[in-house]
């Protein structure tokens, strides 16, 4: 243009006067005359004013008809929020003089799309920034995240129960599908929001993926002023952020994680899908040890992250997997920011392999993480830029074996009569310093070591049982002597041994045991049961009770029951000989008394209920569990399997007091 301005023609159905003025302005400017260009600019402005006066004409139409284009830095825009959207609005490309005249003569100007601007190369950064610099979508002030409360119904089917997260744009909930009686996850967003259409499109494409390694999208609906996406809910799973919260992963577990995640992401990319926001919160490990990925395509759309090209999307997801492996190996986030309860790396440690950050990291996994995460890995290694390359690199790693399980620790038997106990079967051996160690070729193999350890465990178990039997017999004999009358004591030995024992002689007087602490037990991966303090069950006050949550259906192993049961885990502080347990309920309950097996005795609160042994099952408002013989244990589980109905027709459990005797 002679004067440097741009002529933009709007070809929408508007007033004829505005179109003719805009076309005339463009023709005169393209003709090349400076004076004519100035006159055309004036005509264009008049045409814009006329277009703005037409009913139904928008400001964007007026600008397209000849109004000068503004930039965000224009002083006239100060104090006014720029209207920036996710998608660039349709613009008309400038036409030549001949094309303009032909369009004007035809009376029906045709539109040409503007050429797509070239996207500049993006420097590799943290794939999960705190504020994504590419996210230019601004939330309309009249369209905040929909406000909902627990108990609200969505789509006449999904009942909201707990808000998991809340942002200005959307909210995420744990809900119940009333139709199928199952837990689901729900994302809520205002349907008029700029991102709503992309969220629906992303959810529908994710639902078509059909890969069981991804958390499935079950529903995506636009209903009135609300858009909601329903996904599968995994109650017995833990995300990667929680798994590494207390320390790094073992090499075998980190290898399983990166292998399964890389295989799943590579399969998704082969079908044209990308995650674009793969974080430790999105990687879930189920109770069976399988890893599943949540939020493919949907998480990025909810947060307004723009769609990447195929090559950039593969690099973004590959770098995200590298960040997950780096965090699993080092317990540090590989960027300067502190994220996901992990401390970030100092700036001086950027682009270093995990084995340079933490000692003892597996060498092969450390090199794999550096090649995946960095564009220029240390030691001039070849970077890995796609999930397919990562899968092939993992397949070339030497096999990382799972560590052998630790041998169970058996508690020492009770020593009631120490002078009558036999000596230890295997006295401690003192190593001879003059004897040299065996050469590597003659050392026992792992299988021989395992058999030897197994024999030692069997011997230790047999001796433990024998010593326990001797101790119990001694204790019963002393108890018999203590309850024998004076006449029987003074009688001769033959008459005492030949006489049958009286009922009083075999009766055991229970001794109350102190319960150090009590907590609700729902199994691994679930929250606390009820809002009351479980300590109310051991405060010696029957008027204070511990109340469970309410349930629409009775407990049971099959649908429509949501779970098999719930309960209380009692801690005696140390192993004690338990002979009876008394429980006072409020209403008719059915409950089992259980003790943990040796494999979970160290941490029974995080074990499944199948790891406990049932000692008895009773029903009623007040139950007494009297054991045939005392059981030595530190923990007791009161497992409720049937609850009474409350006044609202819900199933609710209430426990008033629990007494333990030895």
What features would you describe in this structure?
With 662 residues, this protein is α+β, with helices and mostly antiparallel strands. The chain contains 15 helices and 17 strands. The protein has helices at residues 16-31, 34-53, 59-64, 97-106, 196-207, 240-243, 251-270, 298-302, 310-330, 354-357, 363-373, 387-395, 446-482, 486-490, 493-498, and strands at residues 153-154, 158-166, 170-177, 182-190, 217-223, 226-232, 238-239, 283-285, 291-293, 332-333, 343-344, 512-513, 517-521, 546-547, 566-596, 612-642, 654-661. It has a six-stranded antiparallel beta sheet, with helices on one face. Strands 12, 13, 14, 15, 16 and 17 form a six-stranded antiparallel beta sheet that branches. A hairpin with a 3-residue loop joins strand 1 and strand 2. Helix 7 runs antiparallel to helix 9. It is flat, with a radius of gyration of 37 Å. The N and C termini lie far apart (99 Å).
Shape: flat
Distance between the termini: 99 Å
Radius of gyration: 37 Å
Number of strands: 17
Report the sheet with the most strands, covering strand number, pairing sense and barrel closure: 6 strands, antiparallel
Which strand-content bin applies to the residues? 15-25%
Low-confidence stretches: 1-19, 30-113, 119-124, 127-139, 427-444, 485-506
**Tally of helical runs:** 15
Helix content: 25-40%
Mean pLDDT: 74
């Amino acid at each position: 243009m002679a004067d440097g301005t741009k002529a933009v023609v709007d070809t929408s159905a508007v007033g004829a006067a505005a179109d003719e003025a805009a076309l005339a302005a463009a023709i005169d400017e393209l003709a090349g005359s400076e004076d004519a260009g100035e006159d055309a600019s004036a005509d264009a402005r008049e045409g814009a004013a006329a277009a703005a006066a037409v009913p139904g004409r928008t400001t964007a139409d007026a600008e397209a008809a000849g109004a000068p284009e503004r930039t965000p830095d224009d002083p006239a825009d100060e104090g006014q929020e720029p209207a920036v959207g996710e998608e660039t609005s349709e613009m008309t490309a400038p036409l030549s003089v001949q094309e303009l005249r032909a369009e004007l003569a035809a009376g029906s100007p045709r539109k040409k799309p503007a050429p797509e601007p070239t996207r500049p190369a993006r420097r590799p950064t943290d794939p999960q920034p705190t504020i994504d610099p590419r996210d230019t979508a601004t939330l309309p002030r009249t369209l905040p995240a929909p406000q909902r409360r627990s108990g609200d119904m969505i789509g006449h089917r999904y009942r909201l129960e707990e808000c998991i997260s809340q942002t200005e744009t959307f909210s995420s909930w744990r809900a119940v599908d009333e139709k199928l009686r199952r837990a689901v996850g729900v994302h809520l967003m205002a349907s008029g929001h700029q991102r709503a259409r992309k969220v629906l499109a992303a959810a529908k494409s994710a639902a078509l993926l059909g890969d069981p390694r991804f958390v499935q999208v079950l529903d995506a609906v636009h209903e009135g002023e609300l858009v909601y996406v329903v996904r599968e809910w995994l109650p017995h799973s833990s995300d990667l952020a929680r798994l590494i919260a207390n320390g790094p992963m073992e090499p075998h577990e980190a290898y399983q994680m990166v292998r399964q995640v890389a295989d799943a992401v590579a399969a998704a990319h082969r079908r044209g899908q990308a995650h674009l926001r793969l974080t430790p919160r999105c990687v879930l490990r189920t109770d069976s040890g399988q890893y599943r990925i949540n939020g493919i395509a949907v998480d990025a759309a909810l947060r307004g992250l723009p769609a990447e090209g195929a090559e950039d999307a593969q690099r973004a997801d590959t770098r995200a997997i590298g960040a997950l492996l780096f965090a699993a190996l080092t317990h540090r986030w590989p960027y300067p920011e502190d994220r996901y309860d992990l401390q970030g790396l100092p700036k001086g440690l950027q682009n270093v392999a995990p084995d340079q950050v933490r000692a003892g990291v597996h060498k092969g996994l450390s090199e794999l993480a550096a090649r995946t995460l960095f564009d220029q890995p240390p030691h001039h290694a070849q970077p890995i830029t796609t999930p397919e390359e990562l899968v092939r690199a993992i397949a070339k790693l030497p096999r990382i074996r799972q560590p052998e399980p630790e041998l169970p620790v058996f508690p020492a038997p009770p020593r009631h009569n120490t002078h009558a106990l036999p000596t230890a079967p295997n006295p401690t051996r003192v190593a001879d310093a003059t004897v040299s160690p065996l050469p590597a070729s003659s050392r026992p193999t792992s299988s021989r070591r395992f058999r030897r350890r197994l024999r030692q465990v069997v011997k230790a178990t047999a001796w433990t049982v024998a010593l326990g039997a001797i101790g119990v017999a001694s204790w019963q004999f002393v108890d018999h002597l203590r309850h024998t009358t004076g006449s029987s004591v003074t009688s001769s030995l033959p008459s005492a041994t030949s006489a049958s024992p009286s009922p009083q002689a075999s009766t055991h007087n229970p001794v109350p045991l102190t319960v150090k602490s009590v907590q609700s037990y729902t199994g691994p991966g679930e929250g606390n049961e009820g809002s009351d303090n479980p300590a109310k069950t051991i405060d010696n006050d029957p008027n204070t009770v511990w109340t469970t949550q309410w349930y629409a259906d009775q407990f049971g192993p099959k649908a429509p029951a949501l779970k098999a049961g719930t309960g209380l885990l009692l801690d005696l502080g140390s192993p004690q000989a338990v002979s009876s347990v008394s429980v006072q309920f409020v209403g008719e309950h059915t409950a089992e008394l259980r003790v943990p097996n040796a494999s979970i005795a160290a941490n029974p609160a995080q074990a499944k209920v199948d790891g406990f042994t049932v000692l008895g099952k009773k029903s009623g408002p007040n139950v007494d569990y009297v054991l045939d013989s005392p059981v030595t244990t530190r923990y007791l589980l009161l497992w409720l399997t049937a609850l009474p109905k409350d006044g609202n027709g819900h199933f609710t459990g209430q426990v008033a007091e629990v007494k333990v005797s030895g």
